[in-house]
Amino acid sequence: MMKRSLLCALLLAVTAVPAGAANLVKTYSYFSIGGSTLEDIEKQLSTHGPQVKSTGSRHPGATQMAFTTRISYARQAGSCRIADAAVTVKVKVILPEWRRPRKADPDVKLFWDTLAADIKRHEERHVEIAKNHARELEDALKATYPQKDCGTAKAKVAEITAAILAKHDRAQVQFDRVESVNFESRILRLMRYRIQRIENGQLPPPA
What does the pLDDT read at residue 21? Predict the structure, then answer.
């Protein structure tokens, strides 16, 4: 249900970069939906949700990603090594925003609050998966042994990057697969938990 497009771009530059862990640059974007019933909301999400290129369909949320890798090389007699590597992953999280009609039933509002929170949690997990693999890529590049020349070193960088980004893509797809299977039971469980918190005074009732 919630597959995501992974827009992974690799930029290689021979330049000095600061040491440190992988960087994350995150932004949010919102799209508005209306409707006063569950059916209306479902239709609005399928009509106005972000379109994912990999599936060609629209989804209730999405996370677009781009990986940027900057490398500095150190040349020595008969060898070339990676002096430093910095990986940045830029993500854009796209989430729905419901324009609540005054006449909307409290049960619909409760469902929306539950669904919206789950969509955000889902997308934030995509971000976390991306950052973990960016850190893994950075560590792997820094641990690379010296090569006979910088051309070979660059080829090694490309090889390592391709392998880890492929692993990243598989992790994202697997996460979506598990989430899709468990969607209904998860939403029902979250709704029961939210109702319980409202009854215990830990959350305000739907406004």
Answer: 63
Report residue 162 as tokens.
């391709």
Residue among 13, 7, 171, 162 at smallest CA distance from 89: 7
pLDDT digits (tens, 9 = 90+) for 31-62: 999 888 888 888 898 888 887 776 667 888 99
d(CA 64, CA 123): 10
Q: What percent of the chain has pLDDT over 90?
A: 49
Kind and range of the H or E element at 24? strand 23-33
The helix (H) or strand (E) run that includes residue 98 is: strand 79-98
Q: What three-state secondary structure class fits 166?
A: helix
Question: Residues 73, 14: contact at Cβ < 8 Å?
Answer: yes
pLDDT band at 97 (very low <50, low <70, confident <90, very high): very high
Measured distance CA(13)–CA(45) in Å, rounded:
40
Q: What pLDDT sits at residue 107?
A: 85
**Interatomic CA distance for residues 98 and 37, integer angstroms:** 12
The phi and psi torsions of 21 (rounded to 5 degrees) equal -75, 165
Q: Is residue 73 within 8 Å of residue 15, measured between CB atoms?
A: no
Q: Which of 83, 89, 87 is nearest to 16 (CA)?
A: 83
